[in-house]
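Action item from last meeting closed. Structure (106 res):
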């Protein structure tokens, strides 16, 4: 699996600016749910307004139950609990990329 890396470790506003300004395709956003300044669910919603075909993989040190705090995120949301091995992450990325576009009401 070869995916070009665009940005790592940036805040929500920076990621959103990248979504708006980047001229090329962005196939996947991997975001933590709990982040400073803007949570990952809000980031995904705003990014999907700009990039309708963007796929999103949420990751958290908490269980998937944390998504229940976000009422408009459904059970089909792509999610991984940390810590995660490189192989599990790679497999999940492939699964998300091969799936239909985001159905997460993001």
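Sequence:
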């Amino acid at each position: 699996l070869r995916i070009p890396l665009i940005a790592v470790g940036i805040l929500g506003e920076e990621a959103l600016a990248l979504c708006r300004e980047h001229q090329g395709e962005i196939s996947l956003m991997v975001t933590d749910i709990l982040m400073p300044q803007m949570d990952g669910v809000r980031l995904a919603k705003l990014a999907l307004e700009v990039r309708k075909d963007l796929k999103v993989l949420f990751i958290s040190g908490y269980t998937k139950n944390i998504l229940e705090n976000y009422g408009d995120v459904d059970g089909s949301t792509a999610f991984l609990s940390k810590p995660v091995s490189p192989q599990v992450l790679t497999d999940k990325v492939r699964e998300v990329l091969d799936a239909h576009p985001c159905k997460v009401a993001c």
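Note appended to the action item: The longest helix spans residues 86-98.
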